[in-house]
């Protein structure tokens, strides 16, 4: 009697098929996409920081006034 397998059988296909070679255009497009996504996230972070600073500044600059009765 044989021992039970600890690993499942690899089956007919052994792993993912190899990827098609990338063309120079594909490489350039991927690099450009990475750059634009990185710059967009940096811009969003800077905008959020500036907005928080502006709100903090405005909160300190304007004292709360009580309405006149």
Structure overview:
The chain has 69 residues and is mainly α. The protein contains one helix and no strands. It has one helix at residues 24-61. The model has no long low-confidence stretch (mean pLDDT 83).
What attributes does this structure have?
69 residues, 1 helix
Topology (SSEs and partners):
Elements: H1 24-61
* Uncertain residue ranges: none
Q: How large is the count of helical segments?
A: 1
Cα Rg: 29 Å
Shape: elongated
Could you give a quick summary of the protein structure above?
This protein has one helix at residues 24-61. The protein is mainly alpha-helical.
């Amino acid at each position: 009697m044989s021992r039970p397998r600890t690993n499942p059988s690899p089956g007919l296909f052994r792993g993912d098929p190899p990827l098609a070679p990338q063309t120079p255009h594909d490489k350039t497009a991927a690099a450009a996409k990475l750059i634009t996504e990185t710059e967009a996230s940096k811009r969003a972070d800077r905008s959020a920081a500036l907005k928080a600073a502006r709100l903090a500044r405005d909160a300190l600059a304007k004292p709360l006034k009580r309405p006149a009765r």
